[in-house]
Structures are given as C-alpha cells and as structure tokens.
Amino acid sequence: MIKVATYNVNSIRARRELLFRWLEREPVDVLCLQELKQEEENFPYGDFEALGYRCAVFSQKAYNGVCICSKLPLEEVRKGFGDEFFDRQRRLISARTGDLWFINVYAPHGDLRGTEKFRYKLAFYERLLSYLKENHSPRERICMLGDFNVALEDRDVFDPELLRDTIGTMKEEREAFRRILDWGFRDAFRYLYPDRIQFTWWDYIGGMIWKNKGMRIDYILVTEPLKDKVRDVYVDLWPRRRRSPKPSDHAPLVGVFEL
C-alpha cells in the first residue's frame, strides 16, 4: 500500500512550516507539489531528506515550479516537455519508479476568453496531449496528478450558475481537459466516488473554506492498468483550515494505492 499526494503549496517558502507539519501527520510516499515559486538551488532538499524523501525539482524564481519528492527510488526524471517555448514556465516534471510513472502537472490558470493567457492555457493542454502521445502509452501504469485549473463538471464547483463560463469552467477548457482523459486516463476520485461533492481549492476572500464554497481543480488521474489499484482518494482539509501558519488556497489531494 502506498500513498501519493498532489498539493499546490502557493510558495514553498511561505508554506514551509505548514507543509512539514502536515507531512508529519500524513507521511505520504510520493508527494507532487506545484507553484513552488522558488529557484531549484534554494529548494529545501535537506528538510525533505530528513524525512526520507529524495526530490526532483523543476522550478524558477517567483512563479510556477513543480517537484516530485519520493521515498521510493526515482528513475528517468524528465524535467519539462523538452520544448523551449513551454518550458520557460516550469509546469511539468515526470519520473518513474519501477514500472510506475508519475507525471506532475501545473496547468496555467488562464484568463478571460480571447486573452493571451486563455490561448496559452489551451495551447498548454494541446502540448500536454502531444507529450503523452510522444512519450507514453495508455497501456503503461501512469499516475498523472496536479493542479489542472479546470473544474471538469458543474458539480465540481459550489455554484454552477454563478461560476458559469468563468475561468476554469469554460467549455473550451473542459474540452481540452477531456481530451487528456480520453487519451487514456480515469479521474481516480470520480471513479471511486461518482456522486460525491468535494472541492480542492477555495478563495481566500470571504472565508470560503469555512462555507465550503470551492472548486475541484486538483486531480489524480490513472491509466486503465492502474485504476483497479486505487483504494481511496481524499482531500485532507487540515492544511487548508488554518489561520496560522497561513495556508495555501488549495488542500492536498491524497491517493491510496495497493500495488
């Protein structure tokens, strides 16, 4: 049995104390973080090593950044797409342990329809799809997880009418994300819990976490050979329901696998 987690920390420097307090409570085997906002050379490798992790990091100053920290041996670490244009923003890292691939994704937030950031988000999804086709097969055991910045269905937001056609719910975004799933992935949470309402992100403004007015934009996706190994997928609200240390606006999403 292993535990994997995805967590947008919204600055590892700002969330360092909270993150390591959480890891003491929830000692996952593989941890994928997004939005590190810190250069690779300043990443807290030593703190992770003290807990038994080795970390592969692809990050930059002030923006973006992803890592995979694992208690399992990591092989074939791949940083980015191998594409100069898309790798200017550090949004993708993958690694293999045995015959199991982990792909950590931090998709762009995007913006209003027709803007440059909106177009970039859709282009990112197209590049991600081509990356999968070029480097992997749906027959492989792959766990792709991260912050995808899309609420796939209306039930993945607290108020579908209020949020209709806003960032993260637009038809074009959902279709782009759906093409990734159609390549060969299952949404592990929805596979286990087809009717459960659960969010992973809540705005800081208005105390939304206490009202549970959020969105489900963080996912653990698995290929068919891995889907029947999933035993649980849950959101750990402890790190989000904090006043001090100040939390990220996301909560960790944890998957339990019997391998």
UniProtKB/TrEMBL annotation:
Cofactor binding comment, as recorded: Probably binds two magnesium or manganese ions per subunit.
Record-linked PROSITE patterns: AP_NUCLEASE_F1_4
Site for Important for catalytic activity, residues: D218
Coiled-coil stretches: none
Active site, renumbered: Y106, D147 (proton donor/acceptor), H250 (proton acceptor)
GO biological process: DNA repair
UniProt entry keywords in alphabetical sequence: Hydrolase, Magnesium, Manganese, Metal-binding
EC number: 3.1.11.2
Classification via Gene3D superfamilies: Endonuclease/exonuclease/phosphatase
Pfam family, any one: Exo_endo_phos
Residues annotated for Mg(2+) binding in this entry: N8, E35, D147, N149, D249, H250
InterPro entries: AP_endonuc_1, Endo/exonu/phosph_ase_sf, Endo/exonuclease/phosphatase, ExoIII-like
UniProt superkingdom: Bacteria
Residue intervals of the Endonuclease/exonuclease/phosphatase domain: 5-250
EC class: hydrolase
Gene Ontology terms for molecular function: double-stranded DNA 3'-5' DNA exonuclease activity; metal ion binding
Family listed: Belongs to the DNA repair enzymes AP/ExoA family.
NCBIfam families, per the entry: exoDNase_III (TIGR00195), xth (TIGR00633)
Protein name: Exodeoxyribonuclease III
Organism of this sequence: Aquifex aeolicus
